[in-house]
Structure formats: structure tokens, C-alpha cells
Specification:
Length: 155
């Protein structure tokens, strides 16, 4: 919170340092509030760059919170771009990131791309059928035949 407030006061270096330290210490963060201030301050990429320098578990966990915050704050294009960057930086089992990219694309009305990413998530091991059934992000996809086929693959 102190880092977000410092950013709001125009103290960019101090704000970013406090935010990184908060992630390292495991302090609670409001991802949506953080994303809004990062975007307003124009320092999202700078923070992500700093977080990606941390040890992989901490860096990945931290950037995933920023990623979620961007999505929930309505910065869907930015969330997609960050999700793609995360998948490139941390190859392997990234089903959750693929799912989140699908959600952002669905919110933007890009059904074909959203379904492709949802398929990728399922292929990579995403199995949360209850979330797929209830997530409002996917509402626009549910009437589509391809969605029904993908959903049928979840058990």
C-alpha cells in the first residue's frame, strides 16, 4: 500500500522499490488497485521488469498478481500482453496463464482467439470445470459450439 501511495504522489523509484519489497515479503496486495495505479503512473512494464529479476517462484507469483490485477481492472489488452510475456519467460506448465489470457480475450469480444487459448489451457492441464462453468469472463463463449466441445473435454 505504501508503494502504491508513493506512486500516486509521483515518487516512482520509491514506490516501485516498496512494491517489489512488499512482494518479496509476501505482503498482501490489492491486485486491481495496484494495476490501476501502475497504469496511471505508466510504470507497469518497469515494475514487471523488476519483478522478473527476482527468484523464479517469487517473481512469477508476483507478476501473476499484476497480471490478474490488470484483467480485473479492465486493462485486458495489457493483461494479454503480460500473460504472453510470462509464458515466454517461464515455459512449461502455464495452464492458468493460458486460461487468464482466454478470459481477457473473451472480455474483448475476440471469441476465436479466446477459444484457442482456452483449448491451450485445457491441453496444458487446466481442469477446473466449475470455474469454466461459472466464470463471467467466459459468458460470451458459452453459446458457441466450439466452447461446448472444449467444455465436454473437462471432467
Amino acid at each position: 500500500l505504501r508503494g502504491v501511495l508513493a506512486l500516486a504522489d509521483g515518487e516512482t523509484d520509491q514506490g516501485l522499490a516498496l512494491i517489489v519489497d512488499g512482494f518479496v515479503q509476501g505482503a498482501g496486495v490489492s491486485p486491481r488497485g495496484l494495476a490501476v495505479q501502475l497504469q496511471a503512473s505508466g510504470v507497469t512494464d518497469e515494475l514487471v521488469g523488476r519483478l522478473l529479476l527476482l527468484d523464479p517462484p517469487t517473481g512469477l507469483r508476483s507478476v501473476m498478481q499484476v497480471h490478474a490485477g490488470l484483467h480485473y481492472a479492465g486493462f485486458h489488452r495489457e493483461a494479454i500482453d503480460l500473460g504472453v510475456r510470462l509464458r515466454a519467460k517461464y515455459p512449461g506448465d502455464q495452464a492458468e496463464i493460458a486460461y487468464n489470457i482466454a478470459c481477457s480475450l473473451a472480455r474483448l469480444g475476440e471469441a476465436d482467439a479466446a477459444l484457442k487459448w482456452l483449448e491451450t489451457a485445457i491441453e496444458e492441464g487446466f481442469t477446473n470445470a466449475d470455474l469454466v462453468d461459472s466464470d463471467a469472463d467466459l459468458d460470451s463463449l458459452r453459446p458457441l459450439p466450439r466452447f461446448a466441445r472444449l467444455r465436454a473435454g473437462l471432467r
